[in-house]
Amino acid sequence: MQPDGTVLCLEAVTKRFGGLVVLDGIDLAVGRSELVGLIGPNGAGKSTLFNVITAIYAPTRGKVLFGGRDITGAQPHHICRFGIARTFQLVRTFLTMTAFENVMVGAVYGGGGRVRHAAEAAEQALELVGLAAKRNVTTAHMTLSDRRLLEIARAVASSPALLLLDEPMAGLNPTEIRQMVEVIRRTRSEKGISILWVEHKVDAIMKVCSRVVVLDHGVKIADGTPAEIVANRKVIEAYLGEPAA
Ligand SMILES: Nc1ncnc2c1ncn2[C@@H]1O[C@H](COP(=O)(O)OP(=O)(O)OP(=O)(O)O)[C@@H](O)[C@H]1O
Q1: Which of 93, 167, 103 is nearest to 136 (CA)?
Q2: Domain count of the chain?
Q3: Which of 19, 40, 132, 161 is 20 to 30 A from 100, comparing alpha carbons?
Q4: 106-163, pLDDT tens digit by residue?
Q5: Which of 62-66, 89-93, 181-185 has the lowest mean pLDDT?
Q6: 14, 15, 16, 17: which to mutate for ligand 1, most atoms within 8 A of CB?
Q7: Is the ipTM reported for this complex over the cut 0.90?
C-alpha cells in the first residue's frame, strides 16, 4: 500500500489492439478497503481493464502500480502472489472437485503452499460466502449462484489485498442478487479487502459502492459518488445513446 492508502493505481493506461484504442489514458485509484464500482456500456473496455491489471495484457502505454510497486508487464502467474485475486464473468470453478477443494486451490496458492494455514483460510472463506454446509458438494452439482459464491471464496482464500469482481451477478435471480450483495459487503468489511467490481446491474452498484467509475469507448467519463454519477450528463448520454435533455 502507498503511504496515502492507495492499493491500486493506474496511470494513463492505454491499450490498443491494432488500430483500435480500447483504453485511452485511464487514471484510476482504489484505496484500502474501498469498494469501487466500474460500469459502462457493452464494449466500453471494462474487461480489458481487468486484463491489464492482472497482466493478461500489457498496456500499450501507462503504468499499473500495486501497493506502490510498478507491476506493469509482470507475469500473469505472479499477480496472485502480489495480492490481486479475480473472479470471472464465465465462472471458472473445477467441476470435479468439491467446494472445499476448489477453495483450497486459492488458499494454497495464495498462502505460498503452507497446507495447514490454507485449510483454515479455506474454511473461513466458505463461511464468509455462506457455503460452509456445502463444503463437500462437488462443484458440478452446484447452482450457478453457488458457483459464483465459490469463486469469491476461492479468491478470498488467497488472502488478496485487492479483489476484482467481473459481473458476479450475471444470471442470478433477485434473491441470489441480494445474497451476493451481502457477501460482497462482508468481504470488504470483515476482510478489509479492496474491491473493484464490474457490473451491468447498475442499481446494485449504486446501492452498495461508495464510489463509481464509468468507462465509455475506452475513456473514463466519470468518477464519483453514486449521487454524482446518476446526475452526470456524460453518463446519461453514454447509457441512453443520445444527448440528455
Ligand atoms: N483481444 C482483443 N482483440 C481485439 N479487440 C479486442 C480484444 N479484446 C477486446 N477487444 C475489443 O475491445 C473493446 C472493449 O472490450 P471489453 O470486453 O473490454 O469491453 P467491456 O466493457 O468489458 O464489454 P462487456 O460489458 O460487453 O463485457 C471491444 O470493442 C472489443 O471488441
Answers
A1: 103
A2: 1
A3: 161
A4: 788 766 656 678 888 999 999 999 999 999 999 889 999 999 999 999 999 999 999 9
A5: 89-93
A6: 17
A7: yes
* Ligand 1 neighbourhood includes 56 CB (under 6 angstroms): no
Q: Is a pLDDT exceeding 80 seen at residue 186?
A: yes
CATH number of the domain at 187, please: 3.40.50.300
What separation in Å is there between the alpha carbon of 39 and the centre of ligand 1? 14
CB of 188 shorter than 6 A to ligand 1: no
Residue 245: inside a domain, yes or no?
no
Note whether residue 168 is domain-resident: yes
- Is 53 among the domain residues? yes
Q: Residue with the nearest Cα to atom 8 of ligand 1?
A: 48
Nearest CA to ligand 1 atom 28: 43
Could you tell me the three cell numbers for 69? 510497486
Ligand 1 neighbour 43 (Cβ under 6 A): yes
Domain span holding position 169? 6-240
Global confidence as pTM: 0.92
Instruction: State mean pLDDT over 156-182.
Output: 94
Size of the chain in residues:
245
